[in-house]
């Protein structure tokens, strides 16, 4: 029987909740460097690729000099928008939009493979790092999208006293940090007066996230990852 949310519905311009955790619930981020490497990979995938002409490198082989461009990883700047993310010691959450039918699949497969190779080399281990394929839920409800972003940004609270110190996009949503490859406008637009009918008279994203609200649990139900 397939795992819950392991069968994907791929839709062009669809917005998805994507998540995965370590195999056997193991830790996938052991230290600060691990978090930073994972975020570095996200940045490389989601920012415009460099001009190839600026990457020309001269190298020497058997006494002869050659010019070439070093291997470049795939780039998803034009096909993936990352709306929100949160990284915890043994799992991660994304909200993303894929602009083509299968770009999410290729992006997540490449990210997981690349990070697993880094992690296994660093810690001298072999085997799978993640618990099977990523899980994905197509988000077709605006209210669900908003409360999912709240859940994702609150998720690290058991690991840190300040949510803004977490490895998440929460600081971008509070305008405390600018990161070009995180697209906040889709969600923050609902906190403008003209779209506020979906919320309980809340114009502040910070108060929306940090205030207790039973709607979150009732709305998201069993779609939340089990830690």
Automatic annotation (TrEMBL):
Residues 11-155 form the Transposase IS200-like domain. One of its GO terms (molecular function) is DNA binding. It comes from the Bacteria. Gene3D superfamilies: Transposase IS200-like. GO terms for biological process: DNA transposition. This is Transposase IS200-like domain-containing protein. It comes from Candidatus Woesebacteria bacterium RIFOXYA1_FULL_43_9. The lineage of its organism: Bacteria, Candidatus Woeseibacteriota.
